[in-house]
Amino acid sequence: MGCTRDAFLDALENLTADEFKKFKMKLLSVPLREGYARIPRGTLLPMDAVDLTDKLVSYYLEAYGANLTALVLRDVGMQEVAEQLQETLGKGELTSSTLRAEVQTTLHFVDQHRAALIARVTDVDGVLDALYGKVLTEEQHQAVRAERTSPTKMRTLFSFAPAWNLTCKDLLLQALRDTQPYLVADLTQS
């Protein structure tokens, strides 16, 4: 266990201040595997390398944390540091596309098809009615309904998604299946 933390710490300490800042910003937006939560922005940004190492292991565990750290390092242009991390941990070279494909296959349906759902869902009110009281509070429900177009309603609905667990996403998917069955079938096949 100490070896993995040491490898994370070495990788993060090899970054300049600007590179470390880019790493933390990218960590806020990189797609995560289903079941993993994002480190909150307010917690993440002030962290130093030691604190971030502990958070990476506590939030993502060692194996996934190593893959995620390598992916983010590659995304911010630090391929050499990513390779050193993987060599230290005894992992073969993993490319960003391989890691992205791994994350993509484990993302929930609503996360995988977010852009298409925003663009193509037409009966947003039906979806809202199904989610009201189960997933959405009164204020959230009203905020979405206040928007004028379906895409902006869906964008507002998705703005609440980071706080949702798997059950909430499943309820959204069921509401979409009930109100937009052909759209869900089309996206499932794509």
Describe the structure in brief:
Helix content is 71%, strand content 0%. The protein has helices at 2-13, 17-27, 41-44, 49-60, 62-75, 79-88, 96-106, 109-112, 114-120, 124-131, 138-145, 150-159, 166-179, 181-189.
Would you kindly provide a written description of the structure presented here, covering whatever features stand out?
The chain is mainly alpha-helical. The protein is 71% helix and 0% strand. It has helices spanning 2-13, 17-27, 41-44, 49-60, 62-75, 79-88, 96-106, 109-112, 114-120, 124-131, 138-145, 150-159, 166-179, 181-189. The N and C termini lie far apart (40 Å). Mean pLDDT is 85; it is low at 92-96.
Q: How does the helix and strand content classify structurally?
A: mainly alpha
Mean pLDDT across all residues, rounded? 85
The biggest sheet, with number of strands, parallel, antiparallel or mixed sense and barrel status, is: none
Q: Number of DSSP helices?
A: 14
- Element pattern in H and E: HHHHHHHHHHHHHH
Unreliable residue runs: 92-96
Shape: elongated
Radius of gyration from CA coordinates? 19 Å
**Strand fraction:** under 5%
Helix content percent band? over 70%
User: Kindly, what is the distance between the CA atoms of the first and last residues, rounded to a whole number of angstroms?
Assistant: 40 Å
Number of strands: 0
Task: Record the SSE blueprint.
Layout: H1 2-13, H2 17-27, H3 41-44, H4 49-60, H5 62-75, H6 79-88, H7 96-106, H8 109-112, H9 114-120, H10 124-131, H11 138-145, H12 150-159, H13 166-179, H14 181-189
Helix pairs in contact: 1-4, 1-6, 4-5, 5-6, 9-12, 10-13, 11-12, 13-14
